[in-house]
Amino acid sequence: MNTKILFTLLLLFTLPSAYAQKVKLKKEVIYVDGQATFSFAKRTHGTEIVVYTLNTKDELFTAIFYPGDNETRDDNYYRLVFTGDDKSMEYTRAYWNKSLITWLLEQGILTTDGKLDASKIDNFISKYDEKVSERTMILH
Prior knowledge:
Elements (H helix, E strand, L loop, with lengths): L1 H18 L3 E4 L2 E4 L2 E9 L4 E6 L5 E8 L10 E6 L4 E5 L6 H9 L14 H8 L12
Antiparallel strand pairs: 1-2, 2-3, 3-4, 4-5, 5-6, 6-7
């Protein structure tokens, strides 16, 4: 009986990691499972990332980090702009660089053949858009 439980637990913990893609950002190229898949550029002192189709300047999306005030991290947020579709969303999860690409791959927004699946953007936005700027007071 104990070996069945142990086997079940091992299976539960190893299956999710077997399907996760390995993402690496190096020299303005995004590698997914060792394959060059997208290009990227960091702008505005690293607070903005633009992702392109591989070896082009055809923008897929731009991610922008808004740091809020210096006192707390509670008002930090990210804005994700899907360039060609003129759609955007805001989120507070700390998905940035590799973790952002991994999240978009897991959600099917990005594909491993280097494309953006526009048909999934609306559902993704409806699930994860936190509309942070609508509920945040900005003091100057």
